[in-house]
């Protein structure tokens, strides 16, 4: 729904692919080791990616990131596709690389994320012309 109109333009998966904000990586650290866990994720998995840390709790944190297909070198000197989900799974399944992490999960953007993005873009398109007349 945007500008007062409700439209259905595809399946939920199709909408997530077009309007989704990427993926979310949830990490759950061992007690008292959240900062260590987040730092290792940022250095080893998120380097070179467009990401942001969106939630932080006592023993868990969430990173939101986009996937790209630009080749780059990993921190371990191996060639990888930057942002390939398989590469992220490969590294997270090696507990010795992330000793502070107890558990993790990856999820795709939710339909709520898609809805918020579409509505926000619609509101921005309406609001910006009105703002421009007051700033001139």
Strand content: 15-25%
N→C terminal distance: 31 Å
CATH C-level category of the largest domain: Alpha Beta
Which structural category fits the helices and strands?
A: alpha+beta
Low-confidence stretches: 69-83, 127-136
- The overall average pLDDT, rounded, is 77
Number of strands: 6
Oligomer state equals single chain
Tally of separate helices: 4
In total, how many domains does the architecture comprise?
2
Shape: elongated
CATH architectural name of the largest domain: 2-Layer Sandwich
The spatial strand order of the largest sheet comes to 2-3-1-6
Order of helices and strands: HEHEEEEHEH
Largest sheet: 4 strands, antiparallel
Output the radius of gyration: 19 Å
GO molecular function: ABC-type transporter activity; lipid transporter activity
GO cellular component, one term: membrane
Keywords: Repeat, Transport
What would the keywords be for this entry?
136 residues, alpha+beta, Alpha-Beta Plaits, 4-stranded antiparallel beta sheet, two-stranded antiparallel ribbon, 4 helices, 38% helix, disordered C terminus
Could you characterize what this model shows?
By secondary structure, this protein is an alpha+beta fold. It folds into 2 domains: 1-20 and 111-136, no CATH class; 22-108, Alpha-Beta Plaits (2-Layer Sandwich), CATH 3.30.70. The chain is 38% helix and 24% strand. It has 4 helices and 6 strands; from the N terminus they run H-E-H-E-E-E-E-H-E-H. The chain has helices at residues 12-19, 34-44, 85-92, 111-135; strands at residues 23-29, 51-56, 60-65, 71-73, 79-81, 101-108. It has a 4-stranded antiparallel sheet. Strand 4 (71-73) and strand 5 (79-81) form a beta hairpin. The chain is elongated. The chain starts with 11 loop residues before the first helix and ends with a helix. The model is unreliable at 69-83 and 127-136 (pLDDT under 50).
């Amino acid at each position: 729904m945007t500008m007062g109109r409700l439209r259905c333009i595809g399946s939920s998966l199709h909408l997530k692919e077009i309007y989704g904000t990427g993926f979310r990586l949830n990490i759950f650290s061992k007690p008292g080791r959240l900062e260590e866990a987040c730092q290792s994720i940022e250095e080893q998995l998120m380097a070179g990616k467009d990401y942001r840390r969106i939630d932080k709790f006592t023993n868990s944190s969430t990173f939101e990131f986009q996937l790209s297909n630009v080749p780059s070198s990993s921190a371990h000197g191996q060639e990888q596709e930057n942002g390939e989900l398989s590469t992220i799974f490969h590294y997270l399944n090696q507990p010795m690389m992330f000793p502070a992490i107890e558990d993790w999960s990856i999820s795709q953007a939710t339909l709520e994320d898609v809805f918020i993005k579409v509505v926000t873009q619609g509101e921005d398109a309406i609001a910006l012309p009105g703002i421009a007349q007051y700033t001139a």
